[in-house]
Amino acid sequence: MTKHTDGRFVDDAPFDADAALQQLERADLDAPNWVLVWRKFKTHKLGLISGVFLLFCYLMLPFAGFIAPYGPNERNGEHLYAPPQSINWFHDGSFIGPYVYPIVAEADLETFQWKFVPDTEDPRPIRFFCEGTEYRLAGLVKSDTHLFCAPEGATLFLWGSDRLGRDVFSRILYGAQLSLTVGLIGISVSFTLGIFFGSIAGYFGGKIDWVINRVIEVLRSLPELPLWLALSAAVPSNWSPVAVFFIISIILGILDWPGLARSVRAKFLSLREEEYVRAAEMMGASSGRVIRKHLLPNFMSHLIASATLSIPAMILGETALSFLGLGLRAPAVSWGVMLNDAQNLASIEIYPWTAIPMLPIIVIVLAFNFLGDGLRDSLDPYQQ
Fold first, then answer.
1. Spatial distance between the Cα atoms of 209 and 261, rounded to a whole number of angstroms
2. Which pLDDT score is estimated for 350?
3. Contact criterion met (CB below 8 Å) for 147 and 67
4. What is the layout of strands, in order, in the sheet containing 124-125?
5. How far apart are CA 355 and CA 165, in angstroms?
6. pLDDT value at residue 312
7. Apex CA 271: angle with CA 268 and CA 273, to 5°?
8. What pLDDT, on the 0 to 100 scale, is given for residue 192?
9. Looking at domain 171-378, which CATH architecture does it have?
10. How far apart are CA 273 and CA 286, in angstroms?
11. CA angle in degrees (0–180, nearest 5) for 64-69-70
12. In this structure, what DSSP letter does residue 7 have?
């Protein structure tokens, strides 16, 4: 050690790069698993961006009514199939803040359609934190305050209106509450059944394993879409939209569990022969404790990755059923219900903005797939 004039002590020994590298590797091995996972996940930029985007979407769900300028079923009879309106900031070279031009419906005698002409001489500023249609914040607190509203005497259709004069943008926000939640409920049911039956079959084996495997094979041999249609058609038509929503979620979860159960069974068949499992059994641990404390934690990384990849399948399943008219029904609002209203190709050709609800479905499904890929890679942090 050498003491400098500023009081610091410096080691005179030569720098050993190999020793420093070994210390870094040892620090990695001693780090908690979640630190290694996060460190690896940060390098997967697409998965990280998708995770932040999905987190923002789910945090926004309780406040959909506050963000939406209109109610989900609020109609404007004078603006059927109104086109998207642009938000402007400058008028005649001067800044007046965000505003829209009022649109007036005029009959086109050549095409026999209504066309909407903006009045460019009358800018109407958008109102913020204004009163509008009543809604429930987070489904609990009644409120009528909206983040922004249409100006007095004008409309504010950011993504146009549908055949009944309802704002497409507002309906997409309200529809996200059901379409994004159905995946979480469905995956909860699917994972509960899949982990339960898969762990029993893989751990105990024997006749129990044989019976569960035959049930899995029967369920996997059934055609998926016709089975969805049959079960959805059995739901009474006089049930409330909330009851139909939960039934559809449970149906999707029940039909999705066999694939996960087979994966859990295969993993348990290999893990139950490990020494730490045998040691726990010899020390008197019950079968339930061995499964919960010793087997499932070693399989948790695969379960998390499978969950993120299964949720978009649930969302697409609800969308398909609602699109076919066998899922959620009006007055419930979901992306599938909105697509059901826009399934007329002639209307989409004339009013293309009615097909906008398919865009959030595509974006959300891609985001979940990218997040699942990132988690699948990072949950094995020692893999290069």
1. 11
2. 82
3. yes
4. 88-91, 94-100, 124-125
5. 15
6. 83
7. 115
8. 86
9. Orthogonal Bundle (1.10)
10. 16
11. 90
12. S
pLDDT on residue 53: 93
Query: Residue 80's pLDDT is what?
Result: 85
Q: 32 burial class (0-12, 13-18, 19+ CB within 10 angstroms)? A: exposed
Q: How far apart, in Å, are the Cα atoms of 214 and each of 202, 255, 263, 315?
A: 14, 15, 15, 28
DSSP-H helix ranges across 31-113: 33-41, 45-60, 64-67
- The 3-state secondary structure of 225-290, one letter per residue: HHHHHHHHHCCCCCCCHHHHHHHHHHHHHHHHHHHHHHHHHHHHHHHCCCHHHHHHHHCCCCHHHH
Token reading at 89? 């900031």
Cis peptide bond prior to 331, omega within 30° of 0: yes
In one letter, which amino acid is 251?
I
Q: Please report, as a single letter, which amino acid is at residue 83.
A: P
How far the first Cα of the chain sits from its last, in Å, is 39
What pLDDT is attached to residue 52? 92
Per-residue confidence (pLDDT) for residue 382, from 0 to 100: 47
| Among the listed residues 267, 358, 276, 270, the one whose alpha carbon sits nearest the alpha carbon of residue 305 | 267
Please report how the helices 168-204 and 206-221 are oriented relative to each other, as an axis angle in degrees rounded to 10: 150
Residue 55, pLDDT score: 92
Residue with tokens 């009013």: 351
Q: Domain coordinates of the chain in residue numbers?
A: 85-156, 171-378
- For residue 3, the model assigns a pLDDT of 55
Closest CA to 323 of 343, 303, 308: 343
Rounded Cα distance, 44 and 29, in Å: 21
Q: Quick one: pLDDT at residue 328?
A: 72
Length of the chain: 384
Residue type, 290: V
CA distance 154 to 171: 19
Identify the segments of the chain with pLDDT beneath 70. Answer: 1-34, 112, 232, 325-327, 346, 379-384
Instruction: Please tell me whether residue 141 adopts helix, strand or coil conformation.
Output: strand
